[in-house]
Amino acid sequence: MARKITEALDAARVAVADSGAVPEAAAGQDRPELRKAIEEIVDSGFLGVSLRVRDERGEWAGSAGVAELGGAGKPPVNGHARIGSNTKTFTATLVLQLVAEGKIELDTPAADYLPEFGLDRRITVRMLLQHTSGLFNFTGEVYDDGSIVHGIPVPYGTTGKEWVDNRFHTYRPEELVRLALSKPARFEPGTGWSYSNTNYVLARLLIEKVTGRSLAEEMQRRILGPLGLSGTVVPDASPEIPEPHAHIYYRYEDAGRQKTIDITRYNPSWVSTGGDMISTSQDLATFISALIGGKLLPTPLLAEMCTPHPTGIPNMDYGLGVFVQKTDCGGTVITHNGGNVGSVTLMYSTPDGSKTLTAVLNWVADADMSIATALQNAQQRLVNEVFCGEQADPAQPTD
């Protein structure tokens, strides 16, 4: 598999070209199947959807639904969105750039770079990027027996109101790591796979320790600036999101009554590098094209990034900051999606970088994640439409 991915990445160096924005009025006319797909997804319970596809037919971008509750305007085709765990792919890319420069070794204990936390010396940098460290996820864990161990207040589960009341609170990354380390590990390092935001907060601290600069500075210097990603932001603790953007909402119970509030503005430091960045569908398409096309990493490291490690999730393995997913039609896509409060961002590419799908879906979130089935169906509908050319039964949800 790694060899095939390497060959595909080599081919992608001449196959990938970045495209500019396409006005919706000029797109859409020749892609009725994409227009139909996003309209039907809105009908299934979403406030709005914006979609961007780059393939052999060029670029198509469009949106459906509304940008805010009670409004009539569509979501902006290239609006800003909180991209959740897509942040992990940016962060892993940055770590691998430092590996390429000899400043970090993938198989060196993370404790060698961050001695202040007393990390288990069996945990390597690779395990952080691969989610095989076993470290407790500071946003909470659900165990195989159904038991739940809470971390910080989060918007899903039983602590919805607590998250609402706390949503402008600032957490520092060191605080999140120390909370995680105060809880039992899920498993011995390297003996399992479990998705943990803690791994990527440690990756942030590792980047800052090795470079002597903030993550935001390094991201701008190494990725955002060179690729011209002017719509992408590393917000740290700022609650602001640039215009234009769709709105996101949260419904929760307070004193026995249901309340729905606009939570477009909130302090994202509660998730930190586990999922705090802001971007646009155009910037995400440019980023994943550049990454898979070999513009950000040497081919051997890119091949390592995309080499699948078993996760226990059907048809979905994990590399270093990316999922390697089997499609319903037997193909492979390199992906990382980002679930957030009231929105999800999708980012997919073929292993040769010739076709990408990026999208933002918004809804009214609640503590029970009642949109989950519709979200799973929507994701798979778009993947099948773009990468298989047909609809198929929904597969497993992505993160």
From TrEMBL:
Pfam families: Beta-lactamase. Signal peptide: none annotated. It comes from the Bacteria. InterPro entries: AmpC-like (IPR050491), Beta-lactam-related (IPR001466), Beta-lactam/transpept-like (IPR012338). SUPFAM superfamilies: beta-lactamase/transpeptidase-like. Residues 34-366 form the Beta-lactamase-related domain. Coiled coil: none annotated. PANTHER family: D-ALANYL-D-ALANINE CARBOXYPEPTIDASE (PTHR46825:SF7), D-ALANYL-D-ALANINE-CARBOXYPEPTIDASE/ENDOPEPTIDASE AMPH (PTHR46825). This is Beta-lactamase family protein. It comes from Nonomuraea cypriaca.
